[in-house]
């Protein structure tokens, strides 16, 4: 399958980072990340600083935190309708079985 492990880590679902089979639920996760990017106009996780030393985090740090459900993309503090943020947060569930289907997003 061509989609296994393919992608840019900022948009990859936790289960894809962990090496499990790619699914439609992974696309839903990526959609949630995209909504975050539309909100902030920045690459996901670009604003994340390491809690210990305050410097930008590494790719490995982001992937580890995402797979453990400890980090999600951020959203602008203002200007984002609450319904957009709510949909995005549903899409960004760490557990793929908790994410909505594409039909549920319409």
Structure description:
The protein has one domain (9-98): Orthogonal Bundle (Transferase(Phosphotransferase), domain 1). The model has no long low-confidence stretch (mean pLDDT 91). Helix content is 38%, strand content 0%. It contains four helices and no strands. It has helices spanning 14-17, 24-40, 59-67, 82-91. Helix 2 (24-40) packs antiparallel against helix 4 (82-91). It is globular, with a radius of gyration of 14 Å. The protein has 106 residues and is an all-alpha fold.
Fold blueprint:
Layout: H1 14-17, H2 24-40, H3 59-67, H4 82-91
Helix count equals: 4
Second CATH tier, the architecture = Orthogonal Bundle
Fraction in beta strands: under 5%
Structure summary, number of beta strands: 0
What's the number of structural domains?
1
Mean pLDDT comes to 91
Instruction: Give the H and E element order.
Output: HHHH
Envelope shape: globular
CATH top level? Mainly Alpha
Largest sheet: none
Protein name: Protein kinase domain-containing protein
Domain Protein kinase: 1-106
InterPro entries: Kinase-like_dom_sf (IPR011009), Prot_kinase_dom (IPR000719), Ser/Thr_Kinases-Pseudokinases (IPR051681)
Organism: Saprolegnia parasitica (strain CBS 223.65)
Spell out the key features of this protein.
106 residues, mainly alpha, Transferase(Phosphotransferase), domain 1, 4 helices, globular, Protein kinase domain-containing protein, Prot_kinase_dom, protein serine/threonine kinase activity, ATP binding
Brief overview, please?
One of its GO terms (molecular function) is protein serine/threonine kinase activity. The protein contains four helices and no strands.
